[in-house]
Amino acid sequence: MTTTVITPYKNLRVESRGPVAVLSIHRPEVLNALNRETLAEIEDFARRFLADPEQQALIVTGSGQKSFISGADINELAVLDPRGAEEISRFGQRVLDRLEQAPKLVIAAINGYAFGGGCELALACHLRLASDNAVMGLPEVSLGIIPGYGGTQRLPRLVGPARALELMASARRVKADEAERIGLVNRVVPQDQLLPEAEKLALAVLKNGPLAVAAVLEVVGRGMQMPLADGLRLESSLFGILAASEDMHEGLKAFLEKRVAQYRRR
């Protein structure tokens, strides 16, 4: 598959691999730490990605082999007053919300360190693959603060409140094998296979009905924030909407005719 490298950003590297975009956080001098400028670039990229009909899935990773994202930029945090701290927290939350709520698949390919804001970004992705050298955690309490980009809410939803509280309150880091065991990542792969496996996963998803994939991302994402009864109503509503689509009829017809479906996103 042809790879096109696009670099309109200072702290990001963007590649286009057919229908899959690869976004690499590129601040190697600080182990890819997130600062305000990088968050703004991610937000701009997300807007462009979501508007591009040719790009249907996104892989987020970190440049190099040592670090996915080492956390928020400590130099920026050190000079924040209370108002500035709340503002940057809300800004980071907004950027990560955009990834989490995307109607296109977003996969975190976690290579190495994923601490603080880096772990929070991974939590906002729909799926997470980790290299065998990955280490993850939300250790903010060891600095006298708490996670500010959604980690206090997303981690309990993913691994359960008791385990999440233990990890955050103790500032404990977890290695890749434990992260997989507790459900923090979907699976662990050798480091040299991380991006190929993430791309393979993305392409496997993209073989399916695109309207249905977008709907399942929505119903799971929104459903996690609803009472069960409301989530079930949303499921029924989307089920009904899809039943009126050409894609559903094409999918059923292709199954009966034992051929590959030709979906048209309508």
From TrEMBL:
Q: List the Gene Ontology MF annotations in alphabetical order.
A: hydro-lyase activity
Family recorded in the similarity comment: Belongs to the enoyl-CoA hydratase/isomerase family.
Q: Which InterPro entries match?
A: ClpP/crotonase-like_dom_sf (IPR029045), Enoyl-CoA_hyd/isom_CS (IPR018376), Enoyl-CoA_hydra/iso (IPR001753), Enoyl-CoA_hydra_C (IPR014748)
In its UniProt record, which GO terms are filed under biological process? fatty acid beta-oxidation
Does Lyase count among this protein's keywords?
A: yes
What SUPFAM superfamilies has UniProt attached to this entry? ClpP/crotonase
> Any idea what this protein is called?
Enoyl-CoA hydratase
**Keywords (A to Z) from UniProt:** Lyase
